[in-house]
Amino acid sequence: CLHCRTHLSKSEKDSWLCHTCENHIIIHATLFCSVCGARLPENKKICHKSSSYLLAAATKYDGPIRSIIRQLKYYGWPSLAGKIGKYLEKYIKTSGFSAKNYIVVPIPLHAEKLKERGFNQAELLSVEIARILNLKMNKDVLVRNKKTSAQAELKDYEKRKNNIAGAFEVKNPEQISGKNLILVDDVFTSGATMNEAVRVLRKAGARKIVAFVIAKTR
């Protein structure tokens, strides 16, 4: 098992988690406010109505899901994106989230980080989300032109905000001007990365934006 390290039975091997750990993953049933993290029962803004995007987070970043994400990102298991896709699909059904006329856009990696890792986990997840919702994906419109320190290494929000400032650029803004976007990443922690990406996309003319992640920390 990727989380508790017990031996898997024959019926568990395809899932990479034992039944006990699998059952500990609780799928959320709503979207969330991107500012305060409040649940949005009808998937509409009810608190911070001036916020620039809504947050869709399938589950909480702890336990087995944390182990899966770390295995995907840091130990080179891109095949796990398919398993994560099943959680995303369950979340979409449970929350009643629908998105017609949206374009799926992954948070990009810097070219050096992409070369080092070999894949962009946000792009793999974008493929799953685009498939589930039957939407088009544009992986080239948002680019990362600044190499930054890993956000996970910075605990203070201001440091994260300063670290990511100016990191993104929109190429061919006419491709997203006036369009609704689903912006995809793996984990939502402080929101600094999403906030900066949304700011740049909004400036380029994007309309509604939903930030979509596997898990959130708060």
Give a brief outline of the structure.
Helix content is 33%, strand content 18%. The chain has 7 helices and 10 strands. The protein has helices at 19-23, 63-74, 80-95, 111-117, 121-133, 157-164, 192-203; strands at 31-33, 39-40, 54-60, 102-106, 136-137, 142-144, 168-170, 180-184, 187-188, 209-216.
What does this structure look like?
The model has no long low-confidence stretch (mean pLDDT 93). The chain is an alpha/beta fold and 218 residues long. Strands 1, 2, 3, 4, 5, 8, 9 and 10 form an 8-stranded mixed sheet that branches. A two-stranded antiparallel ribbon has the order 6-7. Helix 7 links the parallel strand 9 and strand 10.
Key terms for this structure?
alpha/beta, about 20% strand
List SSEs in N-to-C order. Answer: HEEEHHEHHEEHEEEHE
- N/C terminus separation: 26 Å
Structural class: alpha/beta
Radius of gyration of CA atoms, rounded to a whole number: 17 Å
Count of DSSP helices? Answer: 7
Helix content: 25-40%
Q: What is the mean predicted local confidence, pLDDT?
A: 93
Give the strand content: 15-25%
Overall morphology: globular
The description of the largest β-sheet is: 8 strands, mixed
Provide the low-confidence segments as ranges. none
